[in-house]
Write a structure and sequence with these properties.
The chain has 206 residues and is an alpha/beta fold. The chain contains 9 helices and 5 strands. The protein has a 5-stranded parallel beta sheet with strand order 3-2-1-4-5, covered by helices on one side. Strand 4, helix 9 and strand 5 form a beta-alpha-beta unit. The chain starts with a helix and ends with a strand. The mean pLDDT is 95. Bound molecules: magnesium ion (MG). Magnesium ion binds next to loops.
Length: 206
C-alpha cells in the first residue's frame, strides 16, 4: 500500500473490503477448521457452495441464501434447514469470535481510516460475507464514521458482481472518478472497482 495521502488525492468516497483488508486473515481458515472439527463436512460444503455461488446472482438476500443453503445441502444427509441453522448459529458466530480473539486491524488500515476521517471522506465497508457490524466490533473498529456497512449477499450475489458494486455506488451517491475501493483481492475487490469505473488500492501482507 502506497502513501495514503497520495492515494486519496481527489477521492471523496472510500469503499473498504472487510476480511483480509481491515485485518490480516492469515490463520483464520485453519482456526475455523480446528474449532469446527466436529462439523467439517458442513464447513467443506459451505466453502464449496460459496465457490459455486460465484456464477449466480439473485434479486434479494433471501433468494441468495435460499440458493446457497440448497447448494450446501445438495448430496448430503443434512437438510437445507440444518445448513441454515449451522451457518447462522455456529459458523458465522464462531468466525466473529475468532476474529475478535486472534485478529487486529492492520496498522496501515488504521492510518488510512484516520486519514479518511481527517479529510472528511465518505467511508463504507462492502464485504463478501455477512456479520459486517459484528466483525467490525470484534476488531474494535468504530462503525460510527461509516456511511454504509453492507455485504454482497445482502445485495443478492458475491463479489465481483457488477450489479452489487453498482448498488453500493448508488447507495453512497458516489461518482466513479472520485471513489476508491480498498481490498486484499484484485480478482474480487479490484474487479468490483473496475466494474463501476472506480479506483482500486490493493492491501497486502507486505
Ligand atoms: Mg477480502
Amino acid at each position: 500500500m502506497k502513501d495514503a495521502k497520495i492515494e486519496l488525492n481527489g477521492v471523496k468516497t472510500v469503499v473498504f473490503d472487510l476480511d483480509g483488508t481491515l485485518y490480516n486473515k492469515q490463520g483464520l481458515a485453519a482456526r475455523l477448521t480446528s474449532r469446527l472439527w466436529w462439523c467439517l463436512p458442513l464447513l467443506a460444503a459451505e466453502r464449496r457452495a460459496r465457490k459455486n455461488m460465484h456464477y449466480f446472482r439473485y434479486a434479494s438476500q433471501q433468494e441468495f441464501f435460499t440458493a446457497f443453503f440448497r447448494q450446501m445441502a445438495r448430496g448430503h444427509w443434512w437438510s437445507i434447514g440444518i445448513a441454515e441453522k449451522w451457518y447462522n448459529h455456529v459458523y458465522m458466530p464462531t468466525m466473529v469470535r475468532l476474529i475478535g480473539r486472534y485478529h487486529r486491524p492492520r496498522p496501515q488500515i488504521i492510518a488510512l481510516l484516520d486519514e479518511c476521517k481527517r479529510m472528511g471522506l465518505q467511508m463504507a465497508v462492502y464485504s463478501d460475507y455477512g456479520c459486517v457490524e459484528e466483525k467490525m466490533e470484534a476488531l474494535g473498529i468504530d462503525t460510527q464514521p461509516f456511511e454504509l456497512l453492507v455485504s454482497a449477499p445482502e445485495l443478492g450475489a458475491l463479489k465481483p458482481s457488477e450489479t452489487c458494486a453498482a448498488a453500493v455506488m448508488e447507495m453512497l451517491h458516489a461518482e466513479p472518478e472520485t471513489t476508491l475501493f480498498v481490498g486484499d483481492r484484485d480478482e474480487k475487490d479490484g474487479a468490483s472497482a473496475r466494474a463501476v469505473g472506480a479506483r482500486f488500492m490493493l492491501v497486502g501482507n507486505d
